[in-house]
């Protein structure tokens, strides 16, 4: 006879839900500030990468807000339906971001625009590189334990900010220290490629197969592409 795990106790599940709501709130608050600073500094410096980074922060806010909205429903079926709609909205946002950044990067590379130096952008990228991995890891851990696919998927949005922060920081530093203005639009194109990848996975509903620990996997379920389950 196969033993069946009962999963977290009701008290533990309540604690995890509160933790996720707290992490989502922290993520929204930080990304609002990040978006304002990045877009403002990017506009001043004519930095496509920095503006693209700020727009990605707006996408992260929408993703985190969607998780908060989803967690407000008690009915699992309602949460699942909301998750599907939210993933489509996030996918469209990623594609729009990729299109904007690509067009503006090509414009910069062809000589019709040149990025200036941005010390505030460098500081912001460094802070995000230090903060975002901890927020992502904490939400991912809580989401997997409670069995929330949306919470784990949202933690991937936060993790993406870490990668983008590293790319942005390198591009801005190279521009500042070596005067290679082309480094900024090239870094922006990397951000665009990552946005397309994440948008495609969001549209397909891939990237997470988290399920309540007490639920048995469905027959024929495909978990090969579920990054968060490993």
Short description:
By secondary structure, the protein is mostly helical. It has helices at residues 10-45, 48-71, 76-109, 119-146, 149-178, 183-204.
Walkthrough of the structure:
The structure is a single chain. By secondary structure, this protein is an all-alpha fold. Helices cover 76% and strands 0% of the residues. It has helices at residues 10-45, 48-71, 76-109, 119-146, 149-178, 183-204.
Sum up the structure in keywords.
230 residues; mainly alpha; 6 helices; 0% strand
The biggest sheet amounts to: none
Poorly predicted spans: 207-230
Query: For the residues shown, what is the average pLDDT?
Result: 75
Structural class call reads mainly alpha
Number of strands: 0
The proportion of residues forming helix, as a percent range, comes to over 70%
Order of helices and strands: HHHHHH
Radius of gyration: 19 Å
User: Helical stretch count?
Assistant: 6
User: Per DSSP, what share of the residues sits in E-state strands of 2 or more residues?
Assistant: under 5%
Backbone shape? elongated
């Amino acid at each position: 006879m196969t033993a069946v795990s009962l999963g977290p106790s009701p008290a533990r599940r309540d604690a995890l839900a509160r933790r996720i709501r707290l992490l989502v709130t922290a993520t929204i608050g930080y990304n609002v500030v990040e978006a304002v600073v990045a877009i403002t500094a990017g506009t001043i410096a004519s930095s496509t990468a920095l503006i693209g980074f700020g727009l990605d922060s707006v996408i992260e806010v929408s993703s985190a807000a969607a998780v908060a909205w989803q967690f407000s429903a008690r009915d699992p079926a309602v949460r699942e339906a909301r998750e599907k709609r939210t993933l489509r909205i996030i996918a469209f946002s990623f594609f729009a971001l990729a299109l904007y950044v690509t067009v503006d990067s090509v414009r910069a590379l062809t000589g019709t625009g040149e990025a200036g130096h941005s010390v505030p952008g460098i500081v912001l990228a460094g802070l995000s590189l230090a903060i975002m991995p901890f927020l992502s890891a904490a939400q991912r851990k809580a989401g997997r334990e409670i069995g929330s696919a949306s919470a784990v998927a949202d933690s991937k949005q936060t993790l993406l900010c870490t990668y983008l922060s590293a790319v942005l920081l390198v591009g801005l530093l190279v521009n500042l220290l070596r005067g290679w203005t082309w480094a900024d639009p090239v870094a922006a194109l990397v951000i665009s490629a990552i946005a397309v990848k994440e948008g495609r996975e969001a549209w397909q509903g891939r990237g997470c197969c988290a399920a309540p620990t007490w639920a048995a996997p469905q027959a024929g379920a495909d978990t090969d592409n579920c990054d968060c389950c490993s």
